[in-house]
Design a protein that fits this description.
Two copies of one chain form a homodimer.
Chain A: E1 2-10, H1 15-23, H2 27-35, E2 38-46, E3 49-56, H3 61-70, H4 72-81, E4 85-86, E5 98-99, E6 101-106
Antiparallel strand pairs in A: 1-3, 1-4, 1-5, 2-3
Chain lengths: ~110, ~110
């Protein structure tokens, strides 16, 4: 199992829409996340910053992320979520959510 | 099980010290955390902001946190960690790490 944490910001006027969307996440999106070997996935909000944490239990993360990106319903989900978000300034080219560094872990 | 996530900032010149401390966390501190029913505890760093995530598996969080606070080694640990940290402006009176809101979760 590998843990991933990342950050992104929300446009200030998009907080309510983002929370409502995620309180009613589409079933096919949830199923695809699970199919792509992501578990224990949480998103937290601090100010305008979203903090994401999940655990990857598969053995080919790149392939699973590619599979997720090919899914039509997931693409439609992203098409409504992404306009609400702004990547942080530290995001690398091609990054949307920006991976952050683990400095401590205790099982 | 209940998930907790929270944030705090690091003084800009304290990042290396904080990372070194947590790469060598004292064994008694780790044991006390486990004894107090905290599991799967991670801390991530983004800029000067620390994000903490853990899962509480006991049935009396307040009592367990009080037990942790009574522990002499934990107190000594906090005495070296706290001077490196500055609570966020949103912290409530008495808060050190500031709890943040979960907006999404998928097991």
């Amino acid at each position: 199992m590998k843990r991933y944490a990342s950050v992104i910001t929300l446009k200030p006027d998009a907080i309510l829409a983002y929370k409502q969307l995620h309180a009613h996440t589409w079933k096919q999106v949830l199923a695809k996340i699970t199919e792509c070997n992501i578990r224990n996935y949480s998103i937290y909000l601090y100010g305008n910053t979203l903090f994401s944490y999940f655990e990857y239990v598969g053995d080919d993360y790149e392939a699973d992320m590619a599979k997720m990106a090919e899914d039509e319903v997931t693409q439609a989900w992203w098409s409504v979520c992404k306009p609400l978000q702004i990547p942080v300034s530290e995001a690398k080219p091609g990054e949307w959510w920006h991976d952050i560094e683990e400095v401590f872990h205790l099982d």
